[in-house]
Specification:
The chain contains 1 helix and 6 strands. With 72 residues, it is an alpha+beta fold. It has one domain (12-68). The strands form 3 sheets. The chain has a two-stranded antiparallel sheet with strand order 1-2. Strands 3-4 form a two-stranded antiparallel sheet. It starts with 11 loop residues before the first strand and ends with a helix. The mean pLDDT is 90.
Length: 72
């Protein structure tokens, strides 16, 4: 794929510390909490441990609270 080709659809991403690696090209990933599509160029929040993306700080907090309170 050259820089002028544009892949559409959901990307497959490996989340790393302070970076990410695109394994399958696409234009977005899905938020693990809300299911909302996140354009790759707007992706700011993810978990290396869980290998999942989040759409906002509120989504991160929701996931952290879920993890600390598993009875929910």
């Amino acid at each position: 794929m050259n820089k002028f080709e544009r892949s559409t659809g959901e990307a497959v991403v490996q989340y790393l510390d302070a970076d990410l690696r695109v394994l399958k090209p696409g234009t977005f990933v899905l938020c693990a909490v809300t299911g909302k599509p996140i354009p790759l160029d707007e992706l700011k929040y993810w978990s290396v441990e869980r290998q999942e993306a989040y759409s906002s700080p509120e989504a991160v907090l929701a996931r952290v609270m879920e993890k600390s309170n598993p009875s929910r």
